[in-house]
Amino acid sequence: xxxxxxxxxxxxxxxxxxxxxxxxxxxxxxxxxxxxxxxxxxxxxxxxxxxxxxxxxxxxxxxxxxxxxxxxxxxxxxxxxxxxxxxxxxxxxxxxxxxxxxxxxxxxxxxxxxxxxxxxxxxxxxxxxxxxxxxxxxxxxxxxxxxxxxxxxxxxxxxxxxxxxxxxxxxxxxxxxxxxxxxxxxxxxxxxxxxxxxxxxxxxxxxxxxxxxxxxxxxxxxxxxxxxxxxxxxxxxxxxxxxxxxxxxxxxxxxxxxxxxxxxxxxxxxxxxxxxxxxxxxxxxxxxxxxxxxxxxxxxxxxxxxxxxxxxxxxxxxxxxxxxxxxxxxxxxxxxxxxxxxxxxxxxxxxxxxxxxxxxxxxxxxxxxxxxxxxxxxxxxxxxxxxxxxxxxxxxxxxxxxxxxxxxxxxxxxxxxxxxxxxxxxxxxxxxxxxxxxxxxxxxxxxxxxxxxxxxxxxxxxxxxxxxxxxxxxxxxxxxxxxx
Length: 484
Fold this sequence. Notes:
The protein is an alpha+beta fold. Helices cover 26% and strands 32% of the residues. It is built from 12 helices and 29 strands. Helix 8 (240-251) links the parallel strand 12 (229-234) and strand 13 (255-260). Helix 2 packs parallel to helix 3, helix 3 runs parallel beside helix 4 and helix 7 runs parallel beside helix 8.
């Protein structure tokens, strides 16, 4: 009786659902899930250069392209925009006023594309594009020939309507409302934190725009919250608060390592962040670019290898100008897989081979005094070294102003093989086997009159490197001398 009653109730329920058309079509196929996507790219030296990859997306655009580009100086990019305009794509461009009159930007204007400058002394330093309201291309690469083929850069192509909406709001503040300053551009940070759902997983992303969002605070927060490691590669890192955060991270046991563009070593002298970090024992390296360009990245990685890993990237250099006056964008990405990709690029730029050590025989000298200084490079135990390049600190006289000799630990005199270039002295035939050393002696050298701590820098190459012209940095932090 109970079974019959249960069957009757089941039949009545099913009949009710059928009457109300609530029964699903069991033959209907499951709906496909649409995912967002993230394509991380680095250059140069890869299969496709970064701006060329953007051109491929422009060629697929069907409705709109909005672009904020610091400088436009690449003819294939200009041609692609004009072709897109001719097939009916609506295009709007914001650029820095310093470059609006160059021949490349003028071609766009002559073709009827709407281009606006920022009309101020501060920089419109962004490098991003919004395509068809659903794709965002962003990173450190300017749309120039040198950023495409010569400079170290990174970009991310996001297929995400939520990120496209965030970037469009910033773009229209500039293009439509002519707003570039802190007071004119209202901060919308609370609406600039989204989760991008990709097939590989969900990626929390935060976007900050300068000057209105104070991006430097977001960068410092990532450093302050790091638990295990911090790796950075910056074209320009001059903010004292970022330096303090990096030093504090090291002091609480976080492994900190960094890469600078050579300009940061050569121009800032004893008061640059490079010298401060080096003196504190943080292994910082100078990128020696085999593609005849700059190390143009603006990247920080925190807690690589852990689920809490974070990447900070964008157009934003770690500087006061970037934070307070320029138009910039900075993205914070909370994703282990993304951090792994950026760390691998960090190793590619720095060189992942064994590194030697550099020492100096004096800890302090008097300002403006004549000195004899010995700087010794010891090779790592596993890798032989042929090329050695020693760079004198900024503000010191050119090495040719002194008498320079070089002798190996086995007594071999390499003085006749030394070459000079600017503040470099180098040899291509060091022949250092494992644990051997070479000592450069600088005699009758006038120390600078500017007081402070000066860091010496050495670069080497091992015969096992893939590219025999790619110098590899050594751990040189002991090679610091104080001018008092």
